[in-house]
Specification:
Immunoglobulin-like, 2 domains, eight-stranded mixed β-sheet, 1 helix, globular
Length: about 250
């Protein structure tokens, strides 16, 4: 999944603009994720500027911190070019280079590619006179996948297990992921007392490999249920959505 983070906002609103207008990223990558297989030194990614005005683009890769300046980010991946100008409706090729740093051999590693688009000043872009222009950061995942992992990515969904328990006084849904792959959830839903409710989304919905992730359930009311039905939607390597179902055992402290 691609996630958007707003870093600085420049708003020019004319009197005729609808109050319901929504600013969206105009810089569009050709795919939602990149996968490096062990032995690959670089990957390419095509970007398109769908805005009706030119933008300056800054690119960098980090480990998902989201609050670090590009010069302070650290990752085994490097994005080139790091700064460029892209005309409206134009394309730009991007190279993602692996610097050879040691990464785990028993599981996937993940980094985040940042695509920060900066619109021009209003005087330089008449098309902005009736638009909301936002400088925003689009983030997409880069996975490094070692060779000879013990299972295939397609087997990951079947290996996931869930449980519901209390942590720090709050009910959470815990996903146990014993596979060497990240489980990228688009959505999670739980059923209780005869109805289904969505788990609140966070910036990072992934359950890491060979680990667990807890998803807060908010004002969840358990009732007398000993097992909770779970429905989920995963995003696969190609960015496709895959639905699945499971049952979460309820763990209650004595």
């Amino acid at each position: 999944m691609i996630r958007l983070a707003f870093y600085s906002v420049m708003v020019w609103v004319c009197a005729a603009m609808s109050a319901s207008s929504i600013a969206r990223a105009g810089l569009m990558p050709e795919q939602t994720r990149l996968i490096f297989h062990e032995g690959q030194a670089q990957r390419s990614l095509m970007l398109a500027n769908t805005n009706p005005y030119p933008v300056v683009v800054q690119t960098w890769v980090d480990n998902g911190e989201g609050n670090r300046a590009p010069e302070n980010s650290a990752s085994a991946m490097i994005a080139l070019p790091s700064v460029f100008r892209l005309q409206p409706q134009a394309l730009q090729g991007l190279r993602i280079v692996y610097d050879g740093s040691a990464l785990p051999k028993d599981r996937e590693s993940v980094s985040w590619l940042n695509l920060y688009e900066i619109p021009p000043a209003k005087a330089d872009a008449p098309a902005l006179s009736t638009r909301v222009a936002v400088a925003m950061n689009t983030q997409m995942k880069i996975f490094y996948r070692p060779a000879h992992l013990p299972s295939a990515p397609e087997e990951m969904a079947g290996a996931l297990t869930f449980r519901v328990e209390r942590q720090a006084g709050t009910w959470v849904l815990v996903c146990h992921n014993p596979s060497p792959y990240h489980a990228s959830f688009s959505s999670l839903r739980v059923g209780a007392q005869g109805r289904e409710r969505a788990v609140a989304k966070t910036l990072d919905m992934m359950a890491p490999p060979l680990s667990e992730k807890a998803y807060p359930l908010g004002n969840f009311s358990l009732g007398a249920d000993a097992n909770i039905p779970v429905s989920y939607t995963l995003i696969d390597d190609g960015g496709h959505y895959l639905d699945g179902h499971a049952t979460a055992a309820v763990h209650q402290l004595p």
